[in-house]
Specification:
The structure is a homotetramer.
Chain A (H helix, E strand, L loop, with lengths): L3 E6 L14 H17 L4 H8 L1 E2 L2 E8 L8 E10 L4 E9 L5 E10 L1 E2 L10 H10 L1
Chain lengths: ~140, ~140, ~140, ~140
């Protein structure tokens, strides 16, 4: 199972008055890794949306917080497709800090909808095949 | 089981290029409802932190997205404690729009840590009793 | 000069590790007041965009920070049009806390562009007249 | 005058329903560049706060928007100190895209306050000297 990843420093505006990264931001870090996955696969999300007229909304997220990230940390977010996209796609995700500590891990389920009608559609076939090659 | 709630309009900066509220924001809306719960119980989160020297970090979040919220919607976020706080507290959450459609629902688990040592502690006894009265 | 306003509590995710509201959020609070202005004028921004095919991007913002807002504060953001919209519209803005202390004040200049071509256009005439009545 | 910079891709959650990066995010990008400046000078902001007991709140921001940034863009934010820090520090800022187009430029004025009392203080002498060497 191929793991895609992207790294970035913690931003000041991502901290909260507890002095740690606000928990909502990990959901955004997960997305950063999925965006990088699409770039690495040669089909950035914004081109996917335009080319296929298909949007990829989120069906559900689960996130378990293991270790607080802080200002000064450099995080690596990862994404790996655990269930090939048909009607839905499941992506396992982690956020790890520069010392290898897992800050958060989770599972994100995505769907596919027509960008005009907002109705569910199947994942475009070329994308299905692209992901199947990864398994 | 008592349900606490707070309402607010969708903000322009919460939308994304899909034209709907970005999914990460629902995790923040959930928090809005929990903050309101603490206010309604007479113990706003910032006073809780100061008075008890205890922070309430997030252990895990789960969120299922049902219906996209859009600019112009007025959302109501709800929180109800489903498991009385001891070492952990479980809160059921929803985000509902002005037409009663459930936009998102989920479960958030919170822990209690000492604000100095960041080590897990029990929920302060007066708070435990406060929540037990709600059941 | 008519002043439009909207109130909202400080959100936990808007605080940073200084323990105060992160400065970038005031730019968003300013927008909240402008959105409320459009609602009060009977032309919410999302309907304006659809009806006229015109977007209202930001040309410039200036913000002076006077007093930090904190968790527990209830803020009121205001907007008042200081220069009637033609090619551009100028809006004076403030954020005031529940004790009347000015947290921030500033000036936002907005333009008008065609939503298809992204080229500058004049403000739709009915909107110009709507704002002129306010002066 | 030394220019400090840092690069990062546009994130999906930074876009809004206009399909471009929401204007409030440039204020955050400016901060990214200032954080990088402190790292490059060997004194990351979080260490500065701890070591000197001094916070660096924002006094004012000005930002002029030149060119919209979009999903797929890689932005470079820059910071250069135009007025050596005494009571205040002035930082010129830009955000430039991968094609060299200036997306935004501005000026940020920062102050120095004691982290305990929140009262204005002078910039620590070693930091003043560090910045003076840059001129």
């Amino acid at each position: 199972m191929k793991v895609f990843s992207t790294s970035f420093p913690v931003r000041y505006y991502e901290t909260d008055q507890m002095g740690i990264v606000h928990h909502s931001n990990y959901i955004r870090f997960f997305e950063n890794a999925r965006s990088q996955m699409m770039v690495d696969l040669g089909c950035p999300i914004e081109e996917f949306e335009k080319q296929f007229g298909v949007l990829i909304p989120i069906v559900s997220v689960e996130c378990r917080y293991r270790h607080p990230a802080r200002m000064g940390d450099v995080l690596t977010a990862t994404a790996s497709v655990v269930k090939s996209p048909m009607a839905k796609m499941e992506v396992a995700q982690t956020v790890v800090n520069q010392r290898g500590e897992v800050c958060a891990e989770g599972l994100v389920v995505l769907g596919f909808i027509d960008s005009k009608t907002f109705r569910p559609v199947r994942c475009p076939e070329v994308i299905v095949q692209m992901f199947e090659k990864l398994q």
